[in-house]
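Researcher: I've been going back and forth with a colleague about how Surfactin synthase thioesterase subunit might be arranged in three dimensions. Neither of us has a model we trust, so I'd like an independent prediction. The organism is Pedobacter cryoconitis, in case that matters for your notes. Sequence below.
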Amino acid sequence: MSKPQLFMFHFAGGNSYSFKFMNPYLQEFTIEPIELPGRGKRSGEILITDFHTAAKDVYKQVKSKLNSKQFLIYGHSMGAYLALKVTKMLELDNISPIGIIVTGNAGPKISENKKRYLLNEKDFVKEVKKLGGLPSEVLENQELLDYFMPILKADFEISEENNLERDSTINVPIYSLMGDTEEHADKITNWSKYTRSDFKHEVLSGDHFFIYNHPERLAKIITKHYHDHVVEKKLS
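Model: Here is an independent structure prediction for Surfactin synthase thioesterase subunit. You can compare it with whatever you and your colleague have in mind.
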């Protein structure tokens, strides 16, 4: 019997390798890392800066890899917005995941006024440092920074111009997690507005990249989220 698929959508500046640290804890699943153009295995392709174009790209990747009705979608930060949008797109095709898991993001309409992608390089780097998204050896090496800067700026634009509306509400369960020192962690229940199904949430210790400190806990939540709702889907 084939394993359920777990589609993983990366954060700003991430790629298909961003979640490899979780692989040992997710052996129950076939992991399907999704990657936007301009980095990793797709480094020769042109970067995307538009949210809806990025969502279409991710949607096509999911559709091409999908081989089972039993699948989950997970997204961190920018990937969380894409998880919501792509799930909505799949539902319009009468396809739906068992559920979605979103981390490092309090949901649509919370940070809609931020336009960090428009900042000059110096101020933009300060914002990235606050999030802890890049190691200091990258931020302090101009050659590496020159490589990552266009990718980060493109991804921040995707994220900050997501334009997700309330018609993005989906019919599958959402499980949301954030780090306790993240901005807007107190608004994590905002995600409940975007599902007509079950909603659960949890706040763990850490900053925006708390997931790296809790791989086993996160994997257990993903696995339980699947098992809690796969039965419901079979019965419906």
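Researcher: What would you highlight for our discussion?
Model: I'd start with this: The chain has one domain: 5-235. After that, consider the following. DSSP finds six helices and six strands in the chain.
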